[in-house]
Amino acid sequence: MKRVIPEYTSLEDILQDAIDKENDAREFYLQAAQLAQAQGIRDFLLEMADMEQGHADLLRQKLESVKSDQTVMNGILSSFDDDPEQDKED
After folding, report:
1. What's the maximum distance between 2 C-alpha atoms anywhere in the chain?
2. Could you give the angle at the alpha carbon of 74 between the alpha carbons of 72 and 75, nearest 5°?
């Protein structure tokens, strides 16, 4: 089965989608662990859930970094005057 990859418009969209997928995987493993009868299987599934949480946390940190960088860049760009001649007329 071929996976359909949505068209993303930004890095933020890609990271948020990845976070959502990690969270879905974590929930899957947690639910599967509740159904597991063998302790070894349950432990393994809970370990997998923890790994997915770690992935989501890492992606969330990157998303916040990207958003922060974009805010700084927007501030820098907004400090430049688009039309210096207009200021002279005012």
Report:
1. 79
2. 65
Please state, in angstroms and rounded to a whole number, the distance separating the CA atoms of residues 53 and 7: 25
In 1-90, which ranges are continuous DSSP H helix?
11-35, 39-78, 84-89
Rounded CA separation 7/88 (Å): 44
Q: Are 59 and 22 in contact (CB under 8 A)?
A: yes
Q: pTM for the complete prediction?
A: 0.75
Half-sphere exposure of 62 (CA within 13 A, CB side): 15
CA-atom Rg of the chain in angstroms: 22
How many C-beta atoms surround the C-beta of residue 42 within 10 A?
A: 15
Q: Look up residue 5 and give its two tokens.
A: 């990859």
With a cut of 70, say whether residue 85 has pLDDT above it.
Answer: no
